[in-house]
Design a protein that fits this description.
- Helices cover about 10% and strands about 50% of the residues.
- The chain is mainly beta.
- The chain has a single domain, classed as TolB, C-terminal domain (Neuraminidase, 6 Propeller).
- Strands 16-17-18-19-1-22-21-20 form an eight-stranded mixed β-sheet.
- It is globular.
């Protein structure tokens, strides 16, 4: 009887934990063009300007984007040996991670003028900020809080229903929570930055219609919020960017 009771309690705890994770789907409010050659790694707004960092050896760049037509306003390409990843602006500097190169680039945020290259000890994946610190992912179940010198301040393990959630990728800070793409899935999770628990799941299956996909179309990746709280999603080599609302 004790064993049965323990099993029942475990199932009950798991069910309660699952119930605490709010399930959402995105409702498309508006569609915008997006460059099908942009392998999106970082996406964010700053002072009304849309920034996008892209990946792939030979195709990596940082650019400002005209939302209405998806075209570059200013674009800075990286040397072919670098694979660009997540990006964000903090204290007037634009930070860009690289995937396997063990370096990060720092640019002047207003002019996109290169300033310096700094060493970086992990794989670079996603990058965002809470306005005080940089927050990075590396494809594991951890998020890394760093100062502007890229020195580690805190490691935050992320869990979904009590289990580590791996493949955390592109990040965005929205209303005091961390949104993260889960690589190779159509899921975005909403993470409590205080305890690392996933509080919400957004199922983006079908966001990009099948008739718009080509052999070059890759995974969902790219979350941005503008100064008015409007949320935008896109993917690697996607032809569209979507302004969305969440529906429970």
């Amino acid at each position: 009887m004790k064993k049965i009771a323990l099993i029942f309690c475990s199932l009950l705890i798991a069910a309660c934990s699952e119930a605490q994770v709010v399930q959402y789907r995105p409702k498309v409010v508006k569609e915008y063009p997006h460059s099908v050659t942009a392998y999106t790694q970082g996406l964010f707004f700053h002072d009304g300007v849309l920034y996008e960092s892209t990946g792939q050896y030979g195709g990596s760049a940082i650019r400002t984007v005209n939302l209405q037509d998806g075209k570059s306003i200013v674009e800075k390409k990286f040397n072919n040996k670098y694979f660009g990843e997540g990006s964000v602006i903090l204290n007037g500097d634009l930070f860009i991670l690289t995937w396997m190169n063990k370096v990060a680039f720092i640019y002047d945020a207003k002019t996109l003028t290169y300033k310096r290259t700094v060493s970086y000890p992990r794989q670079g994946w996603g990058l965002t900020t809470d306005g005080k610190q940089l927050i990075a992912s590396d494809g594991s179940s951890n998020l890394y809080f760093m100062n502007t010198s890229l020195k580690l301040q805190k490691t935050l393990p992320v869990t979904l229903n009590g289990r580590p959630l791996r493949n955390l990728n592109e990040l965005e800070w929205i209303d005091g929570k961390i949104w993260a793409n889960v690589y190779l899935t159509d899921m975005i999770v909403i993470i409590n930055p205080k305890n690392g628990k996933v509080e919400g799941k957004i199922d983006c299956t079908g966001l990009l219609p099948a008739n718009l996909k080509t052999p070059d179309t890759d995974v969902l990746n790219g979350i941005a919020v503008d100064g008015k709280g409007h949320i935008f999603l896109t993917g690697k080599n996607w032809p569209r960017m979507y302004e969305i609302e969440l529906i429970k």
